[in-house]
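so my prof wants the structure for this chain in the tokens format not the other one, which i didnt know existed until like an hour ago. anyway here's the sequence
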Amino acid sequence: MAWELDNDRPIYAQLVDRIQMQIVSGYYQPGGKLPSVRELASVAAVNPNTMQKAFVELERSGLIITQRTNGRNVTEDTELIESIKQGMARGHMEFFFSKMKELGYTGEEIKALIDNEIAQ
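here's what i got, hopefully its the right format
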């Protein structure tokens, strides 16, 4: 099944986000081998060149490592993975809180809603 991608952002950036999420969530384990560019491009239903561009970005960030004869692997640097995971979580929280404040909620009201949601 093709990945859901939208037209609001560059496709390669969405691919980076998706693969990053898969790495930080543990779908791809530290030190684990990633599928080839062609395999992932086929799964995502995108051009292999677009997937290659996403891989270059992920390599720049340090999340993946290219080994010429062994393909691409996820970094074994669990501190880097955790740092990126926390950064992604902060981004989601900032977005959530800004939207809640736009709706007119105070910090205490947001906390009460969150506490209520967790209790369910």
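also thought this was worth mentioning. The mean pLDDT is 94.
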